[in-house]
Amino acid sequence: MTSDRSGKKAARARMAATGEAYSTARRAVQARLDRPAPLAKPPAIDPREHAVQSRHWGAQTCHLVHYQDRYSAWITGPDPSERGQVYGMPSETAGRAFVDGWQATQLLHTGWDEQIAHIFLLSPSTRNGILYEAAVVNVEDSGIWVACFDDTGGDGGTRTLGTFGTLKEALEEFAALAERAADRLDHAHAHAHAHAHAVDGADLYAGVLRYRAATVRAEAARAALGDAIRRHQPSIHAGDGLQPLWHEAGLPRESLGAVLAGQEWTWPQGPVTRPPGSRRPDTPTTTLATHTVDGHRFDLVSYVDTAGARCLAIDRDGRRDASARGIQVDEQNLASAAMTMATREPRTAAVYGRVHDSVTELYAIMQDGERVDWPIYDDARNQERYFAVIADSQALADIVAVAPTGSTSLKRFFGMWFNPPPGPGPRRPRA
Question: What percent of the chain has pLDDT over 70?
């Protein structure tokens, strides 16, 4: 229970820092890449000059470096003057696996709506980790990737990574990986008495993996047949006796037109994923507001990152503290928030985010029932409206955005920190 509680807390902290949905942040915490201890004294070198392998994700890069007969992995950001994280590697093989595992983790952390195909199975064990996760992702400027985390062997999990020239090849690899994982679970189920880490209900999980492999292959086969039908379109229109084939393929006569038009029996579509950008030292920024609380300065800063995403950040005492990108709001969800919070006394919370254009006021409700109004800032560059509430996290009960059509409470984002105010209080009704 304690482990699960700490995992949920870590996921909410990540959600606050990144603006991710809770489900995405929770998966990221559960499947984070296991890393060796960092090097106490990394060599004073530029890793780019000694890298034998490099993987990139947005502004971050993971290099495998060979220097003075030793291998090390360097995870660096956009600023070349910052060393980043450096880990010793026992061998070139281990180093390449680490670098590929890092890249696979980035791909698996993309949203499910950014993936062409995915499987996600939580482990039934008490540690509540991930048993199996895989995704097919089409990444801008780098092609189609298949990433997989597989703990069906009960060995702490392995990550695999591959890039493919066609979606057909990628989907076949996705299905093959799922089938191999199912084989391991079936073997463990058949010899449960000899496996200390056997998965409860292994045959059920194996069945789900085989089912997903079969459905992905079926979708691919149907798309390939659709391509063939479209290639033979002149013959089909000429009526050369191909009609009996449609019955065998399960294609109703009335659906043939949609197939020929490319509206049905096509390859699964997914967005081209753009890796997250970064805020570089020379990135133009706008300071929308500055608040000084308990001797600390909090700046609400907006900018556009290197990937073109509209971003909002809190800088604390002149240093970057937390940021969120691509914050979404609509007429039903009038406001969306991220959060940064000091972990030592005083426990000052900076809740910041975006509000819909229809929002007319935003206020905080304190534990004693007091209402405190906070301004909304129009950002000319990003063409969005932002806010920041800086308060004692133990005294803050709720934040409410109000529009003519209703209101939205932000307490749902950070319920673990907010508590309801005592008594009826001057609360506005939720939308």
Answer: 80
